[in-house]
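QUALITY CONTROL LOG
STEP: pairwise intake check
CHECKER ROLE: data steward
CRITERIA: each record must contain a sequence immediately followed by its structure tokens, with no blank fields

ENTRY 1 OF 2
RESULT FIELD BELOW
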Amino acid sequence: MSVTLPELVCPAGSLPALKMAVDRGADCVYCGLKDETNARNFSGLNFDTTSLREGIRYAHQHRRKVLLAINTYAQAGQSERWRHAVDQAAEFGVDAVILADMGLLAYAAQTHPHLRLHLSVQGSATNYEAINYCHERFGVVRAVLPRVLTLLQVEQVIRHTPVEIEVFGFGSLCVMVEGRCLLSSYVTGESPNTHGVCSPAKAVRWNQTPKGMQSRLNGMLIDQYADGENAGYPTLCKGRFDVHDEIYYALEEPTSLNVLSVLPDLLRIGVAAIKVEGRQRSPAYVGQVTQILRAALDACADDAGRYSVKPSWAAALNKVAEGQQATLGAYSRPWK
């Protein structure tokens, strides 16, 4: 039985990362502007008008697509900035915009009726009723599912919506349902849904102490690392805390989602796109992950019945996984 191969959607936090993704086999790249309109608003990342135009030109030259993430929520009195980002996307000729804000979806549908609209994972739509509403009301043609659904639940969504369904295939996991995180705003006063970053750089501090390297977020101790221990970027959800005299990852252990072993199932149920997380990661990371997933998808398409994960693929992805370990997350839930 022939299957339609999902698009491989890869992150681009910079122009070099965009070109790396295209060169290594991505079907689509997704990126954001250098402001609060995108959910990876890190200093030194993202695109200005010049680099975005060049990225679109390069991708289209290689017959690849560019998706622009405008996936934070417009703030009262500042909504013109978000609307202007949608206007720029249409003007520059991106292949789709990824939106979460219902007001922006309405604006895009009314102002740019030919602009392809994708519902961001930040929209937090976990059921087909919500997705169908966005399709009927705004003309959304693709939705990115939060990483909290089992394969059976994803299949149920696909069966009951005409909207293309995109799922995450590799990258950092989030303990929250995307679009509903309050942890960062609790500590820093700035939500990733409005300011575009879990841990604002201005709130991050590293201090060397006799006990080891400490990481703090707005003064709150998030973690402490022994000499030689790998130190991750401090986010509240992945810190280690003292709970009843035991220090451990109380909320979530650093690990990355990796769907290589269930690719045949994702193809069987009709997933339209598989997304790689990591716009904040390096071009080298983007290149390595893109190349491996491209090879795995092609191998699965050739013969899904005989497909198996090559040890070299798993080893390479584990090296760039958060905490150097991987999981199937909610895709593999032994209980019902």
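ENTRY 2 OF 2
RESULT FIELD BELOW
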Amino acid sequence: MVIHLVCAARPNFMKIAPLYHALRKEPWATPVIIHTGQHYDHNMYDSFFEDLGLPKPDINLGVGSGTHAEQTGKVMIAYEKVLIDQRPDLVVVVGDVNSTMAATIAAAKMGIKVAHLEAGLRSFDRNMPEELNRLVTDVLVDMLWTPSRDANENLLNEGIAPNKISLVGNIMIDSLEMMREKIEPLQVYRDFELEAGSYGVVTLHRPSNVDDPTVFQDICCVLREISESVPLVFPVHPRTRQRIDDNHLLLATGSTKKLFLPEPLNYVRFMNLVLNCRFVITDSGGIQEETSYLDIPCLTLRGNTERPITVTHGTNQLCELSQLKQKVGEILRGHAPERGNLELWDGKTARRIVETLQKLNRS
């Protein structure tokens, strides 16, 4: 059974890694890694593959950057050629980037079965490009592998047939547990002359936060103010770094010695930094999940989340910029939510998917 695993961005790599390793152990499965090339940066690509024990992609479409339409179109054109030349038995797409939707459309139009890993997540905000990608993908795929029961409910409410939906759990936790032995011994915080539990971690890259210079400057100013009370380590996403440079926003952060702006860290080093921090400020999806699993307070600088279980059962809080200093203060005073029961977030999601595919292969 030839299975294409399509990835495009850093979170995608983490989602395919446990599944790739699980499939490699099966004599009936031949996993093939397809990298669309939508995102490329050495720290965010090559080192992630090395950390996760993944080989170089079998096929790299090399689509590069561009507008949403350009990326989507390039992936569809390039991937269709691959499908014609090397038709797989199944295409697995993950997450919600442009490549996820594009690969789904290309495969579905050729009558190739598609499975969506991390299906059913919804922010209910169609101003987010990712939300449109989720909606289109979930309508077209044959199998929808969900991380939580609220995702199942979303799909059922949209009219998806129940027999297409499988609650498999959170694949991101598989990656974390797979790499824990490498993550835990490190002391990355010492690179910044910090102590465990004495600092916060920041990650920001969403257009709503970083594309408008006025909004982003306000965020930078608040981060600087917070850093006067507690050190902040802000590994800067390449997209965010470009916005800082374009708009001279380093001036907004000033010369404080407690707001650190390193280059992006590889997965192992970044997760060690998170594992030992006091709290996280983010607009990312995956970190909301990882911090909930690890019982680390998380403040998500957004008005909504496609992962509401991290709020209802986890340690995540949605937060407006005007609330950020207050929320950080509450955490520092010991007022933070504790994690509840996160069903099937147990590091065994890849195994459940393999069992599902094994049954499909036998039928």
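INTAKE CHECK: passed for both entries
DESCRIPTIVE NOTE, ENTRY 2: DSSP finds 16 helices and 13 strands in the chain.
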